[in-house]
Amino acid sequence: MPHRPAFPSPSVTRRNVLALIGLGTVAAAAPSLTGCTSGEATVPTVTGSPTGEARRGGTARLAFAGAGAAESLDPTVGTSPCDLARYSVVFDTLFFFADGEAKPALATAAEVDSKAEHCTLTLRQGVKWHDGMPFTAADVVHTLKYRASPDRIAPSELSAYFDLASAEASDDHTVVVPTVQPVGDPATLFAGAGLYVIKKGTSSFSANSTVGTGPYRLTAFKAGVETRLERHDAYWDSNGYAEKVVLLSVDDAQARVNAVKDGQADYASDISFTTAKAGPPGAGLQIRDAGKDLRTTYGFVLNVSRDLPSDPRVRRAIKLGIDREALVKAVFLGYGEPANDLFGAGAKHYLDDVAVPERDVAKAKRLLKQAGATGKPFVVRTAEYETGLNSSAELFVEQLRSLGLNASLAKVSTTEGYDPAGMKTCDAISFPLGPVSLALTYTRSAAFETLAFPDEELKQAVATAISTTSDRERADAWTKAQRVMAARGNWVAWGRGDVLSLAKEKLTGIENRESPKYPWLGKVGFTA
Fold first, then answer.
1. What is the CATH number of the domain that holds 177?
2. Mean pLDDT, rounded, for 260-278
3. Sign of CA dihedral 42, 43, 49, 51
4. Apex 336 CA angle, 443 and 48, nearest 5
5. 387 pLDDT tier (thresholds 50, 70, 90)
């Protein structure tokens, strides 16, 4: 059968880029570049949730960054943390990420045949929809065909690997999906695709009709305001603790903090480093971090379709010449560390032994001079999708000027930040990425001209990592891909910052899966 190229080619839209970085359309307040440094004491944080036994009952209220009227109950549409937090407890996926790798959910196995022409999904038995109907293979087939439809706002990137429209149920708990290119680890691809399973026959979503198989069922929804949920007592993975969950859609990070401070919420997701530095704003409250393996990597992607970034001497000069420590101190305020120019920290097969480049300003200047880049214009594009992206870009521009580049800043709104046409006009683009799988990091970014690094060795390594059924070969291929990016790639990943939240001390059951910015709330509750 014909196979597609090694890299997927989704429709190149701003929404695709947002899906890659796992962000919606909102941002938090940025710290000042003249603020505290990591040399000053930081307020201690608590990693994760309390470990005490949770009690049954109560209502947990959690505030997330939302998308206003654009929020949707259709799990193929929304991208904001509030949308994604809602989807993850109303619906289930076939697989999900935890501890850097795919774990079974509605599917217990995904296997390809010896010719890599079909993937067989084995589904979990005994699962019930919120309306009491049994979950079957027909629901998965409907979901795959729904996601493959050209009518979708953003068709699933799984279509680059699987012929979703041709999926068939061989029995009530088995689905066979033809492949369109060799796939060695289908579970990881399904886990990274945001594939929430919807019931057979579903074509629209409303507060009165939406059902899932997740731990909580929908009872009320108002876009940009709140979602009300009640526990699904027939959930396949044991019942949750809180009887009810309310998700509050709050764009502004400080407003989320105020909601907890004033008793309107029990949890505020994704608070700023400045807020954390000030300490808990009241008794019985905690500043929490998601842990080092779930930090967000901050950096810049160099657009090698433009003259200066296409020169390896220029890329090397920037990697050697920037002051990572200064960036970390100014932006993270002590809640982070320098990075080694690789995205994907925390994912399975991430290469931990790549050192942070040692700064060498003199060599960086020599390389720029040799490339004829000294004094040439160099445009850095940024939007505040993450706390500190804009301030880091300001400092980055200053550092590039000190190296000899005529650097300037193009600061745009979050509605413009990852517009494909706008990105094409810039030499570097500020870019954050959490601990998503390496398959997602390398294949989806390769689909965008402004983000891609067109290197044959890299392409072959990624193709092998995606296609092989051998975990040893896959590990070796990802090692090769990462060494290419560290040595000559177009990523300038300068730091990794904590993902921070504010919570009441007794709130527990916050489980980080895809991203700590929208944790899984299936076991949320309160300790006694």
1. 3.90.76.10
2. 95
3. positive
4. 85
5. confident
Residue 494 CA to residue 241 CA, distance in Å, equals 40
pLDDT score of 409: 97
Domain that holds residue 342: 293-497
Dist CA 84 CA 76 (whole Å): 10
Which CATH number does the domain housing residue 278 bear? Answer: 3.40.190.10
Question: Are residue 261 and residue 337 in the same domain, yes or no?
Answer: no
Verify that 387 and 465 share a domain, yes or no: yes
| Category of 481 on φ-ψ map: left (φ > 0), alpha (ψ -120 to 50) or beta | alpha
Kindly tell me the sign of the dihedral angle through the C-alpha atoms of 84, 293, 463, 449. positive
Q: What is the largest CA-CA distance in the chain?
A: 70
HSE-up of residue 495 (Cα within 13 Å, Cβ side): 28
* 475 burial via Cβ count (<10 Å: 0-12, 13-18, 19+): middle
Distance of CA 18 to the CA centre of its chain: 9
**Pair (166, 185) in one structural domain:** yes
Answer yes or no: is pLDDT of 23 > 60. Answer: no
pLDDT(7) > 70: no
Cross-strand bridge partners of residue 526: 55, 507
pLDDT confidence band for 34 (50 / 70 / 90): very low
Helical residues (DSSP H) of 37-167, grouped into ranges = 81-90, 137-148
Range in 98-102, 130-134, 355-359 with the lowest mean pLDDT: 98-102
Segment 129-172, tens digit of pLDDT = 999 999 999 999 999 999 998 887 766 778 889 999 999 999 99
CA gap 518, 528 in Å, rounded = 25
